[in-house]
Amino acid sequence: MARASILRRTIATPLILSALLLGFALIAWASGSRPFNQTVIDIFLQVILVVGLYTFIGNSGVISFGHIAFACLGGYVAAWTTIKPMMKGIAMPGLPDWLMQMEIPYWAAALAGGAFAAFWALVFGAVLMRLSGIAASIATFAMLAMVNAIYSNWSSVTAATSSVVGIPIVRSIWPYLIAAILAVFVAWAFSVSRFGLALRAAREEPTAAAASGVNIPRVRLIAFVISGAIMGAGGALYAHSIGIVTPDTFYLGLTFTTLSMLVVGGMGSLSGAVLGVLILSSLIQVLRWLEAGVQVGTGTFALPGGVQEIALGAVMILILMFRPAGIMGNSELTGRRARAEKPGEPGHA
Amino acid sequence: MNDLRADQVSVAFAGLKALSRVDLAVAPGRIVGLIGPNGAGKTTLVNVLTGFQAATEGAVLMEGQSLAGLKPHEVRRRGIARTFQGGRLFRDLTVIDNLEVTGVGLGQSRAASIAEAEAMLDWIGIAHLAGRIAGALPYTDERRVAIGRALIGRPRFLLLDEPAAGMSAQEAADLSALIRRIAGEMGCGVLLIEHNVGLVLGLCDHIVVLDSGAVIETGPPEVIRASEKVRHAYMGSAADIDLPVLEVEA
Asked: Residue A111 in 3-state DSSP?
């Protein structure tokens, strides 16, 4: 009864977020514009990655600079398992024979990418989750640098810094929508689980959480593995959206973008993670259009190049000045007029 | 043998002795007071008993078994619960979630932990607070929620670190009644660390007095009241001062 009650009281959040994502998909589908379609696919990929980040950072309060490493692991799994064997033989001759011959559908590659990333999250996390605060953050960054260095140098298996091409491109918007919605539901399910509750308690008062019986490294590790899996699957789909991967596709640029979206949306909120992506991505898109030039009457209005980055930075500073905890803070969209609840709260008020 | 026992416990920080050969025992269903002036080492002893601080020498035993090397969450799972000075509630969570954390920390499902949390809030008499955000509670309610959180899973021993700090006389009396119920109805052994000496003298079966990390007196309340050493530790002289006793309904 009690469990059903938690689910019933909090299910509105993933449903509202899914409806928002579906709205974006329907607009892209109705517009029939291929560039716009690709933009919305990018947005859905960012949603997957930022929700993956939220699953760990939001619940644990530990800032991770390393999660994009899991997207990298997933992205290369997509390359290893979906590129035609002949092309793999040329670009990555060191792959074992069974992997060289493997050619699986994109969705299976996404699952495999998630599983591979989850395995490595378990290995790294077993050590990293004993750390806290800035030490943990720096260690996650070291993990990102390590993965990047390995993938940039292991030329027979990853083609080093060369682009790995030939990954089958998936242009339909629907698989990305489904994956983004799945990521939202996985993140929500973790958040309302007993591990999610214990981890949020440890985020606020680690000493009191330990005195309440919470094994903090263990619950952090569970979150790390689940978020690693989401990031890995996201990375694989990312590879399928552009058909090409390099180690630098999944490095500092993507780390900065995804973390910014989470911070702007509100680190402690699943709704914030999704809204952060939707708001910042929409803004980036508008600025891109303005930079490319918009027809106004007989002339063309265009912003000078580079305004996109400057405006984006200014908007982020403004949002954080007025809402330091991000747009959503620790609250969730619940569809009710009353105070928004966090997922996991039974809300007995 | 069925008690919680500190046996000749010493703790040193960089050569400075915070505790020196301290003996203390709490039996199930009994209330033991731990008093002493500021800096006497009371909280350090609680930290040692709950796995937050390793003893430099000596041993902590529960029911005859050593707790050496156990982490705080493992000590809690053995049945030793504690509260903290200042409450340390999970301020962004609701009151019932605060209690639930202990349930899930002890390995219960969320459903089971909610059921126990609701029953505990009811037992303490604060069921009406269940949905309130913990960070917005008045001070007294915060303390009661902290005690409720510690009582989830029916611990064998409960260590209360200054639960009456900042309370009025009436609130302290209500707290005393609750502590009596915890010992009497739950059979839980309680170690009460408190600056309110009157409350301790009125409530405890046995009292240990610490000063500068060492036990200077131990015994029932009447022995503590009569002790020159205790007066000296508190007042800095052997002045003839009556230690107050808070009357508590049994």
From this structure: helix
Q: Which ranges of chain B does DSSP label H, i.e. alpha helix?
A: 42-49, 72-78, 95-105, 110-124, 139-151, 169-186, 197-203, 221-226, 228-235
Q: Do B73 and A2 touch (CB under 8 A)?
A: no
- Distance separating alpha carbons of residues A279 and A274, to the nearest angstrom: 9
Query: How far apart are alpha carbons A146 and A270 in whole angstroms?
Result: 29
Which of A197, A204, A211 lies nearest to residue B110, judging by beta carbons?
A197
Q: Do A208 and B88 touch (CB under 8 A)?
A: yes
Please, are residues A254 and A66 in contact by the beta-carbon 8 Å criterion?
no
Q: Measure CB to CB from residue A212 to each of B71, B91, B101 and give the nearest one.
A: B101
Encode pLDDT of A104-161 as tens digits.
999 999 999 999 999 999 999 999 999 989 999 999 999 999 999 999 999 999 999 9
Residue B58 in tokens = 């000596």
| Band of residue A340 on the pLDDT scale cut at 50, 70, 90 | very low
pLDDT at A204 over 90: yes
Q: Which of A92, A74, A73 is nearest to A84 (CA)?
A: A92
Inspect the interface and report whether the beta carbons of B111 and A207 lie closer than 8 Å.
no
ipTM of the complex: 0.92
Residue by residue, DSSP assigns A134-158 as HHHHHHHHHHHHHHHHHHHH-HHHH
Q: Which domains does chain B have, with CATH numbers?
A: 4-235 (3.40.50.300)
Residues of chain B with Cβ-Cβ distance to A266 below 8 Å are none
Domain boundaries, chain A: 9-251
Which residues from B are below 8 Å from A208, CB to CB? 84, 88-90, 149
Q: Mutate which of B48, B97, B151 to test chain A, going by most A C-beta atoms within 10 A?
A: B97
Residue-wise pLDDT tens digits, A147-170:
999 999 999 999 999 999 999 999
